[in-house]
């Protein structure tokens, strides 16, 4: 709840000084001052480190709530991710290492990655894709997923990557919402030694998806599945019949780069649109100054490219920096709970960027797993996606960081495109606090009247000024877009609650809207509710997030059954299965409660906060509007 007093501890840790001495940014305060003195100069210096086909006229044009960055600048992000390095000593450097679930591995140098991207980009052109068309990518964690994204960007097609853990209804909504002309998938994804077919989920999602002309299938299984020659193309055959060279499409700075759907407070997900120039500058900037990527690093971000973290910090940011990225299908506990530490040792990972849920899981497994491996290649640790609670921080810092590595706990969102709040390398770290707004970002925490709250009092987190990688639009929903920028004095509403201490460090307390962050993944209560009521036994449903030691939050569903249905374990099982198939495993409630009625306002809105308070034995607050 906002406006509440929060007790803050004042514990501090200082990482080994050498990491700051070696960092791109050695003095965060000075850097921030440089930004404040001349914001446009700050961003233009960074943008000038990248290659532009034509220079921009203005760094930014702000016509609230619409921003344009690097106006009339022309560029192609893949030129900066690939060609720029080919023309440098990075030409034969490994761009990407991949480690499969079964232990197989592959690698691509920058030169090789560019070739693959060009071939696949021409393949897409052969399917009739050109600048401005939307391509949906529904693939597992394999190099081809990255190649497909970059190939779209090469020719100016807008990619919409859908996490391979989503079910058919969720996929259908994302394909039709964006009007995708081509969908790229794989026959299967491999997880924990099991083969999970993907194409059948896509087939179901394609029913009534009239915009789709072709699907492209990466076939990994033996014997290979048959394809319908008219409509289904093989990933590599498409490349074989293509020209080898594909010059980068000239993109305007404000041309869309991608759509990424994120859960909303209605049943429909929101298509967040990012554009080319500003996103490129923002992800490059933060990969350099926050993650401190250097040429000698092997960088591992454990996210999936299906989420914004994967877009910004597996693919675009690190490749803009000319880094070696590491990706894997491997889950943290298969074949045993030491696998990730083993991979760090094996590949010499130096920057490890992961999520609190994974850290908490490792804590449960115990220190004997990381202690079996040599983790001395690590120099920076990172966290993203949900609050890094003090216990998890301590464990990460001591057990993995050996009491000397910097931890960057980065707060940001799909909508922000890049990091916004963190503790920069070398600054004192405070367990539980993400940190301060980074240079380039003006953030505040305000009460319901829009006034900044004093230290120790919670409030709404807002961003006061535009930044280069901010989303430009919610696809086909300008009203929703405007709502984001409707905070005090026209600020950007993050919909997170936060509190600050007397040194300006911010602690993120959780969402203030109807989103639940489960294991770092955004899930809309309304999405789960509409999946439940689409089952014939359910009349009404209400879903709430309940704190969970491991996952951050878990989903608890209350359902009201239709007449003629009675509560049985089998029916509850059916409902869980129904959510799994339609939305995907990440959205499955941990529990279903059958109830006789739901608390509602007189206007009929379900009062989820009341359900949640009852569940947690807390005070449900003002009940004057309750009807039932
Ligand atoms: C939460 C993920 C606390 C937050 C990059 C935010 C965090 C939502 C942190 C966005 C963090 C993300 N500490 N909470 N370091 N990072 N969040 O769009 O609630 O998938 O609003 O972007 O995740 O989730 P999204």
Describe this structure in words.
- A hairpin with a 2-residue loop joins strand 1 and strand 2.
- This protein is α/β, with parallel strands linked by helices.
- The chain is globular and about 65 Å long.
- Helices cover 30% and strands 24% of the residues.
- The chain is built from 19 helices and 32 strands.
- 5'-O-[(S)-ethoxy(hydroxy)phosphoryl]adenosine binds next to helix 11, strand 20, strand 26 and strand 27.
- The site of 5'-O-[(S)-ethoxy(hydroxy)phosphoryl]adenosine (WTA) has 21 residues, from helix 11, strand 20, strand 26 and strand 27.
Write the layout of secondary structure elements.
Layout: H1 17-22, H2 28-37, H3 39-47, E1 60-63, E2 66-69, E3 74-75, H4 77-86, E4 94-99, E5 105-109, H5 110-126, E6 134-138, H6 143-155, E7 158-161, H7 168-178, E8 182-186, E9 188-191, E10 194-197, H8 199-205, E11 214-218, E12 232-234, H9 235-240, E13 251-252, E14 256-262, E15 270-275, H10 276-289, E16 298-301, H11 308-320, E17 324-328, H12 339-347, E18 351-354, H13 356-365, H14 368-371, E19 380-384, H15 390-400, E20 407-410, E21 421-422, E22 436-437, E23 443-446, E24 459-463, E25 473-474, H16 478-484, E26 492-500, E27 506-511, E28 515-518, E29 521-524, H17 525-533, E30 538-548, E31 552-561, H18 569-582, E32 591-594, H19 608-616
Parallel strand pairs: 4-17, 6-7, 6-8, 7-14, 8-11, 11-12, 16-17, 16-18, 18-19, 19-20, 31-32
Antiparallel strand pairs: 1-2, 3-13, 4-5, 9-10, 14-15, 15-25, 21-22, 23-24, 24-26, 26-27, 28-29, 30-31
Helix pairs in contact: 2-3, 4-5, 4-11, 5-6, 7-8, 10-11, 13-15
The structure holds 5'-O-[(S)-ethoxy(hydroxy)phosphoryl]adenosine.
